[in-house]
Write a structure and sequence with these properties.
Its cofactor is Zn(2+). Keywords: Amino-acid biosynthesis, CBS domain, Cell membrane, Hydrolase, Membrane, Metal-binding, Metalloprotease, Methionine biosynthesis, Protease, Repeat, Transmembrane, Transmembrane helix, Zinc. This is Zinc metalloprotease. InterPro entries: CBS_dom (IPR000644), CBS_dom_sf (IPR046342), Peptidase_M50 (IPR008915), UCP006404_Pept_M50_CBS (IPR016483). By secondary structure, the chain is α/β, with parallel strands linked by helices. It is globular, with a radius of gyration of 26 Å. It has helices at residues 17-32, 45-76, 98-102, 106-135, 144-149, 159-177, 185-195, 200-224, 228-255, 259-262, 276-286, 305-309, 321-324, 337-347, 367-389, and strands at 2-8, 11-16, 81-87, 90-95, 270-271, 290-295, 298-304, 330-331, 351-355, 361-366. The protein folds into 3 domains: 2-178, no CATH class; 200-255; 260-375, Roll (CBS-domain). The relative contact order is 0.07. The protein starts with a strand and ends with a helix.
């Protein structure tokens, strides 16, 4: 779950609910950590926690700059960015059409992948440079003993610590992101480099394998050093690499499948005038959660059980499916199954209607249809490999 907070250069910026949780965690850590990595000695407490929250907010602004660097450069290369979302472990830039990423020249993908980490490294160097030239030390103060002993309470005197923290975190973020762990930026740089020498599929699979290997190494080192948070992050990166690998495999398979080959043609529909009470009964009889809604034989929307649930049970008799239906999301019979998959993701729906050139419904394709097609195609592919290896 996420909500929009702004739009930058036409790109919607969203914040995930998980992001708010980690924001509070970071602010708390900064508040209880001693100088120079926190504000533990600042009094009164309200000043301490205000500084911690402000530093956390500014740090996440730099995370946003990181994602914007990726997105704006990708846009300049012709890719359309759907949105940027800040979540628990950072941020993600969503490309509206995933095929744009696959069609990018490897050199351009390398530039896009490096843009984020470089932005953080530059921010870190600039901030630490400001501390050095303005306050006489990278840490921000020349006399550490006096700074702590006097228990400075003036808000502005703690700005050097804030600058040092932000600079250090950005440098760490920049260098950490260039580790060759897919799907982090370093992993994408590795894939772009490999894609210059091998096929895109081979490059991705190799980058995923190397990323998983580095995640395991990072986890082992973290556990031996009793750095449990870093170990958890390594586990998260391993899972992310695995999921990215599965997603790439699925989209590659869907690229080779045509919608008309897997769509359901015997599609049940409901008339726009059907009451929600009768619709619920219909659903129990037919055992499907969603149906196209028609008016005089023309599809005008799609309705699901979840749509009907928003209406109080006692009032459903007074509402029709037209009152709660959603707009039609459609594909053409000649489109690839990947296009159907992308449409489902962009519109957050579980099924899309298949319309011919004249706008007439010729079929329906659901998420389960896509999953079944992926499973069958992959199974036969693996079986073919096994049969070939047996000779």
């Amino acid at each position: 779950m996420s909500f929009k907070i702004a739009t930058v250069k036409g790109i919607p910026i969203h914040i995930s609910v998980t992001f708010l949780l980690v924001f509070l965690l970071f602010a708390f850590i900064f508040a209880i950590t001693g100088w120079p990595f926190g504000f533990r000695y600042v009094e009164p407490p309200i000043a301490r926690y205000t500084l911690a929250c402000l530093t956390t907010a500014l740090f996440f602004v730099t995370l946003l700059i990181h994602e914007l660097a990726h997105s704006l450069l990708a846009s300049s290369y012709g890719a359309k960015i759907q949105s940027i979302t800040l979540f628990f472990f950072g941020g993600i830039s969503a490309i509206e059409n995933p095929e744009d990423e696959k069609n990018l020249d490897p050199s351009k993908e390398l530039n896009i992948s490096l843009a984020g980490p470089l932005s953080n490294i530059i921010i870190g160097i600039v901030l630490l440079g400001i501390n050095y030239f303005v306050y006489g030390s990278i840490l921000g103060v020349a006399d550490v003993t006096n700074w702590v002993a006097e228990g400075i309470t003036v808000f502005t005197y703690n700005i050097p610590t804030m600058i040092f923290l932000l600079g250090t975190l950005n440098l760490l973020l920049g260098f950490f992101n260039i580790l060759p762990i897919y799907p982090m930026d370093g992993g994408r740089v590795l894939r772009a480099w490999l894609a210059k020498r091998h096929s895109y599929e081979e490059a991705t699979n190799t980058a995923v394998s190397i990323g998983k290997g580095f995640s395991i190494i990072l986890a082992i080192i973290s556990i031996l050093a009793f750095q449990w948070w870093l170990a958890i992050l390594a586990l998260f990166l391993y899972i992310s690499a695995s999921e990215e690998g599965k997603m790439f495999k699925a989209t590659t398979i869907l690229e080779d499948i045509i919608v008309k080959d897997i769509m359901s043609t015997d599609v049940l529909t409901v008339d726009e005038s059907l009451s929600l009470t009768d619709f619920i009964t219909f659903v129990f009889q037919k055992k499907h959660p969603g149906y196209p809604v028609t008016k005089n034989g023309i599809v005008i929307g799609v309705v699901t059980v979840d749509d009907a649930r928003f209406v109080n049970e006692a009032e459903r008799y007074a509402f029709t499916v037209k009152d709660v239906m959603k707009e039609v999301v459609s594909v053409k019979p000649e489109d690839t199954a990947l296009e159907a998959f992308n449409q489902m993701g962009q519109h957050a729906v579980g099924r899309v209607v298949v319309l011919d050139e004249e706008g007439k419904m010729v079929g329906l394709i659901s998420r389960s249809d896509l999953m079944t097609a992926i499973y069958l195609k992959d199974s036969f592919k693996e079986k073919s490999k096994t049969d070939m290896n047996s000779f």
